[in-house]
Amino acid sequence: MKAKSFMILLAAMTVILSSGLLFADEVASTKLDGHTYTLYDNACSWAEAKSFCEEQGGHLATIASRSEQKAIVSLLKSGKKNYYWIGATRGGKTGRFTWITGEPFSYADWDPKAESDTTATNKKSLMIYKSTGRWCDENGDKPSGKASYLQKYGFICEWEGDAPLSASSAKGDGSDGSDSSDYAILMEKGDSIRLGSGSWKSSDTSIIKISKKGKATAIGEGMVTLASSAGMKLVIKVVEEE
User: Fold this and answer.
1) Burial class of residue 86, CB neighbours in 10 A (0-12, 13-18, 19+)
2) Quick one: which of 25, 40, 105, 183 has the fewest CB in 10 Å?
3) Cβ(46)–Cβ(141) below 8 Å
4) 132 pLDDT above the threshold of 50
5) DSSP annotation of 15
6) What is the model's pLDDT at position 165?
């Protein structure tokens, strides 16, 4: 029988990423073919969204098939923004969009208003409409603090595999008497989690071992604090599985 879960409360948490975004709380997630897609309602530019996703070990979502399109459209139903950034940008002499992952841009679902193939525009970033799920080009280069129209934009990240551990995924639900704004994680010995937001260190490496790629593995029992270069702190309790 597994050990009973309980909450370990964090005394403080400060997260400021180099992308300019405060830590983004996820609105909804879905999985398809081993990939995880997460929607965020934090207002930002395309460039800021790209940086955030990459700092979390992923990238802005790419859509290479009808099945991926349907998965993304299902996520949009949970969002409160009008538009969401996805991972393509316009460049080169042709003015055509390419995915930031380098995969072929062979599938598309353009809105009639989109300029999908032109060099005569500053709209070099790709977004998707919440209302229709169709794609359109937009100027995503301006910092969010200097462009009021970006308050209507959120973004979608994608990971090959599971999304990294985030504060939002570790929120308490109040069932143990804690406030829902507190954060905590319980692991069992032998478990692993993938972390985001830069490099991490453990206060006791005999309890938690962290690889250079940000994978934290529980190797002993006890309580440790994980601290990241981005300023995040997580308190983790490691227990032996019963």
Assistant:
1) buried
2) 25
3) yes
4) yes
5) -
6) 58
